[in-house]
Amino acid sequence: MSQEHTVPAEVVETEPTEIPEPGAVTIVVPTFNESANVRQLLHQITEAVPARLPCEVVFVDDSTDDTPEVIEKAAQDCPFPVTVLHREEPVGGLGGAVVEGLKAATSDWIVVMDGDCQHPPSLVPDLVATGERAGAGLVVASRYIKGGSRAGLAGSYRIAVSRGATWLTKALFPRRLHGISDPMSGFFAIRRSAVTAEVLQPLGYKILLELAVRSRPRTVTEVPFVFQDRFAGESKSTAQEGLRFLRHLAGLRTASPVARMIGFGLIGLTGFLPNLVGLWALTALGMHYVPAEILANQLGVAWNFLLIEHLLFRERRRHRRWWDRAGRFALLANADLVLRIPLIALFVHQFHLGVLSATALALVTTFVLRFAGTEALVYLPRRGREKPARDGRTARRAV
Ligand SMILES: Nc1nc2c(ncn2[C@@H]2O[C@H](COP(=O)(O)OP(=O)(O)OP(=O)(O)O)[C@@H](O)[C@H]2O)c(=O)[nH]1
Ligand SMILES: [Mg+2]
């Protein structure tokens, strides 16, 4: 492992770490308050891996408990190098932690696995061997192929959620996830040359999905595995993580401009609902329909703004303050209304279109203009003004 220190004051070093041989594996383990599990995990790795494949273990830790200290102690009994990268700021949650581990790894192969012993380390050499044999860039440990099982997934609710998420994800990315039966798996091996860390924008759980969609390893293969019970401690997977996952899916699906434009259009359509409800309420309160139309339209604009902020341009918000973005967005939305009537008149009088086709053409034109305007004037980074993404303070300990 490289010995560069991001935060020198906090680095604790004991033995110098060995450089793993080429062909070895770096096992990346994200941990959040897993002090009751890490000793057992290192024990299982010691039993199952080094005799078959030289390895090193990199924990990327966001814990608020004593997990790093427990790792440090347990590592003294390990016949392989162990490193703890402790992050002060857990940027990107679990996914961000894994990316940090991928960047730190120096071996040809990297295996990512959980820190709670749900992923059997005995499979690590098999994952790498399968990848080598198949010339694959990515090997997924799958619960959903013959020989695999999700035995350790507690409760029918968790099983249903996991199944639903898998189905939705596969439906949204049929091509990218072709050949991956378990895109929700947190256990996989990836060739270091297949990792393009700079394009990854992880958000919470499901880092495999992020890698499969954005890094696009050429050949992908799978190995069955039996998902074990958690050894100890509590699950960190919450309903809030579920919402984060949906936002992540939306961000991944709308990464290309065409997909983003379709998303923009669909969100625009949903905006009719608050618009009409607002119009109904205001006229029911006795307001004249013209001011009511204008006010209700603003309700639709606000609705659309909230949705596109969270679903479409999540990654591009930090270039302007929220009120600047909201103001620009509202201006564009209202300009769209003002522009539509003269455009229809132009199409009817100059190009002799019928009123209906002129209206349809004006709607499409203003929609495309509004989308392009939103991309360029609201969410395009200003040159030289882009703030570097915060990668948090990370203390590296070779133990
Ligand atoms: N570094 C880091 N690790 C995390 C974070 N959230 C979860 N983890 C780790 O990611 C792994 C998977 O989290 P779990 O809570 O076990 O999620 P799960 O396996 O889907 O849920 P269970 O089946 O209930 O265990 C564990 O090793 C966690 O400690 C985080 O924010 N940062
Ligand atoms: Mg778990």
TrEMBL record:
Check the record and name the InterPro entries matching this protein. Answer: DPM1-like, Glyco_trans_2-like, GtrA_DPMS_TM, Nucleotide-diphossugar_trans
The Glycosyltransferase 2-like domain covers which part of the protein? 26-195
Gene3D superfamilies annotated for this entry? Spore Coat Polysaccharide Biosynthesis Protein SpsA, Chain A
Q: Provide the topology term for how it sits in the membrane.
A: Multi-pass membrane protein
- Give compartment(s): Membrane
The coiled-coil regions, if any, are none
Judging by the UniProt lineage, the source's domain of life is Bacteria
Q: What is its main location?
A: membrane
The UniProt entry, under Pfam families, shows: Glycos_transf_2, GtrA_DPMS_TM
Q: Which family, according to the similarity comment?
A: Belongs to the glycosyltransferase 2 family.
User: Would you tell me the protein name for this molecule?
Assistant: Glycosyltransferase family 2 protein
Q: Which organism is it from?
A: Streptomyces indiaensis
